[in-house]
Amino acid sequence: MTPGRQDNGRFAKGNPGGPGRKPRPVEEGYLDLFREGVPPARAKRIIEKAASQAEHGDAKAREWLFNYLAGKPADKIQVSGAGGSAFRVVIDIADTGAGDQGLPYGAEGDPEE
After folding, report:
1. Neighbours of 4 (CB within 10 A)
2. What angle do CA 6, 11, 13 make, to 5 degrees?
3. Is the pTM of this model over 0.90?
4. Which residue range(s) make up the domain with 62?
5. Alpha carbon distance 101, 98 (integer Å)
6. pLDDT at res. 47
7. Could you tell me where the beta strands, DSSP code E, fall in 48-102?
8. How is 11-62 classified by DSSP, letter by letter?
């Protein structure tokens, strides 16, 4: 078993999952250009202007501000069958003769049992 993982391969509770990917040099270059072109004092003026425009009814400025302040709203996806009724998903797993290797984690035996 790998340290920091459960028997099924998932990260153990409290394990952050590693440091993640380091920024690519190209991305770092673009971020550096952005920081040079829009230093904090200029960014503050832009934000203040957008806030003023939003107060005066500018819907785009309002949307831009609140997407950053509160986060963009999640898209809602409704999954239903014909006429809005619930539908049933059936997954048929073929017997490959490979033992339990073809089954997902935690799956045992016949799904109809």
Report:
1. 12
2. 85
3. no
4. 24-69
5. 6
6. 94
7. none
8. BPTT------PPPPHHHHHHHHHHHHHS-HHHHHHHHHHHHHHHHTT-HHHH
Asked if residue 93 is part of any domain, the answer here is: no
As given in the structure block, the two tokens for residue 72 are 């963009």
Length of the chain: 113
* Cβ-count burial 7-42 (b if 16+ within 10 Å, e if not): eeeeeeeeeeeeeeeeeeeeeeeeeeeeeeeeeeee
Which pLDDT belongs to residue 72? 83
Domain count, the chain: 1
Q: Could you give the CA distance from residue 89 to residue 36 in angstroms, rounded to a whole number?
A: 53
Q: Is residue 65 part of a domain?
A: yes
Q: What are phi and psi of 11, to 5 degrees?
A: -65, 140
Closest to 18 in 3D by CA, of 4, 8, 6: 4
